[in-house]
Structures are given as structure tokens and as C-alpha cells.
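Appendix B, Record 12. Input sequence as logged:
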Amino acid sequence: MKLSKVLIVPKKSTFQIQAIEHKEANFLKLLEEGHSSVTKVKLAHEEHMETLEHLLKALDQRGIEHREVVRAELEGRIKGVDLVISVGGDGTFLDASHHVDTLPLLGINSSKSSSFGHFCLGNLKNIDQVLDDIESDRINTIKLLRLELLLNGKVLPDLVLNEVLIAHSNPAATSRFIVHLRGLSEEQKSSGIWVSTPSGSTGSMRSAGGTVLPINDQRYQYIVREACMRPNEKWQLTRGILDRKEEMRFVSQTRTGTLFIDGQHIEHHFGLGDELIIRASEHDLNAYASAGANDIFV
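Logged structural output:
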């Protein structure tokens, strides 16, 4: 694919936000003291800036028009470019994915000392090779399943690439929901319910005891966190893997329930009596990513 225009979506590093922009007194004090809580922050910032500068140079050398919009300033759906490139880690890739419908997305891990870069095919050392491979069609995108959420009959704008957590807004409180699946219905109390795509199966879902699926699998799964079952009580809907064509339904019995989409940045109120339907979206993400990315977790 010949690239004419690309949009770069870089993160702002912690150092840039707290030390350079806000000059946060406590942060600067901890830096000056060499405190263990911030020792890696400046290194991560320097790595990030070096990677971003290298990417800009590589695009200029190839005559590819480019512009930047930092992840926190993205609005609406991205249009008018051939490729979207996130520069940061997995969080930046996830944020960028929420603004992409059919455009391909490439992740660049800008700081290997601080980011795992699960979604990121590129890094400082291979940026040039990855761009050449894309333009010469030596590599192609893979399709990553995303989830669509219907809240009280209205489709939410954010497609889920990793997972959605359905829980009380307070992590110490009990979450109460009615779960409907495959003709069964259960009233449950727990600390929340994870519903995850294959892409997200290596993160919170795996930590909660879920199954790691291939990143380009066409199924999704759910697991109930810390089920509050009474003695001799047994639920049937505590975990499972669903085919792409299946959907789950939840009714909230929690006054201050919340839907957390792909982390902590996107929230939707899920209050008493609200109904949520989760199903596979028709819009898979077209990502330049490794089809074997999840294999190291198996």
C-alpha cells in the first residue's frame, strides 16, 4: 500500500505532563531526590521522544505527508489518511483504535523500558523496515474482533478492543447484576464481570483466570470476578467463551454501576434497571500486528 498521508497519534509521557507542562512540585521533588517511584520516568520520556523523532524523519524521507494529534485530543472518527500510527504503548494503541473504523492502525512502541507493546509491531529499531514492508505489501493487516455495547437500546460510540469491566463505581463495593445467556438467567453478586475480546485475553482476563485466545480469534469470553455465592449456591454463568454470533445481556441491580471500556479512561453509567447488550461488532480493527502476539502467554 502506497502511503500518501498518515496521522500520528503520540502519547504525552508522564515526564512531559508532570515535569515540563505542569511543573508539579512533588513530582519534581521526587525526581531531584532520585526517588524509586520516578527513577525510570525521564528515561522513558527520552526514549519516547527519540522514537517519535525517528518516525517523523522516516516519513519525511519517504515523502509521506503527516500530522500529529496527541491521544488525549482525538475526537470523532479519523478520516482522510491512509494509515494511523500510534506512538506510545498499548494504551495509546487502544485510544487510537476508538477513533478508527476501517483505516489500518499501526502501533509503535516508543519506550521499551516502560511499555510492553503487545499490539505494537514497530519500535525504534525497526521503524524503517516496517514502513517499507507496508508500502511494498510484504505485510498485511490482521482483523481484530471488537465488541459493540448497546446501553438501553442505544449503541455506544466506543468499540471495545480489549475488555469491558461491568462493576460498581466503587471497587470496594458489591456489584449486583442479572446475567442472561443462552436461555439462562442468574442474579449475581460479585466484584464485577469482565467481558474480553481475544486481543484482551492476555491482560485482565488472563489475570482473572480466563483463557488466552489467539489475537485474531473470532470468539470472546467473560468471567465473573470474586463471585459472592452463598453456601450451597452454585451459578452456571460464571465464565465462558462465546461464538461471534452470540450476545450477552445484563440488567443492573446496582444504583451506581459503571462500564469501564479498555481501561480507566472511558466510563458509562450503568445504573439500577439499565440494560446492557454485548455483541461482536461488524467493524473489526484492521491492525498491522503480529498474528502470534498472544502465543507467548500460552
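Residues 112 and 230 are 46 Å apart (CA to CA).
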